[in-house]
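I am still getting used to backbone structure tokens and would like to learn alongside you. Label the sequence line and the structure token line clearly, so we can match residues to local backbone shapes. Would you write everything just below, so we can both look at the same thing?
***
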Amino acid sequence: MMIAYIVFLHLCLAVLVARPLIRRLQRFRSRSPAASRVYRYEDILRVHQRIDAAVPEGAVLCFGDSFTAGMCTLALSEKAVNFGIGRDTVDDVRRRLRRYGSLQRCGGIVLAVGFNDLMSRTPYQVAESYSLLLEELPDDVPVILCGVPPVDPQRRAKPANSQIAELNRQLAELAEREARLHYILPPEELMDDAAALRPDVHEGDGVHLNGRGYAIWTAAISERLAGPAAAPESSRRR
């Protein structure tokens, strides 16, 4: 009887000791990279929705990945709004479009996305996703398709610049299909003689632009927004 009692006490003690450990393991699992990514993404989308509710009519909406997220959209237009999210793919942007009511009252759209797709898909597949994305956008609003800047192969091996060049060619072809679409080739000032990203225009990772690189890139986009891509408000269908 005494042995059974001692065993019972040890079991109770084991449960008391194990319970905090189990809680810690559960918290650790909830903080895994995948779970953290989902939580962070939804958190960003909630912030975007609060911004979206106050976006004025005629604003320029910028969608994309980290290239867009790191951009000072004020350099494009005083009415430009940044809806970029790091690591986004073309399909990610398409899936979240329904959350932005401002699409129905905007004056222009800038798309700068596609780099992350090339890590696992062909340029042709990415272009197909772009076609589906464009179908989700208002058909009476000018859309600027930004070509993907090349990488510095001394710092970044993938995706290959040949893949990026092919995707940009596909995007240029897409833009020729509709008058509302306007393609921007990455400015030559970003590239060296081998058509690779210059070391002095990125942050050191071979991909992300620094202040100098963004100044060159946003100037090209701003010029296009002020040019043929900027449709007069009176020409918009209601």
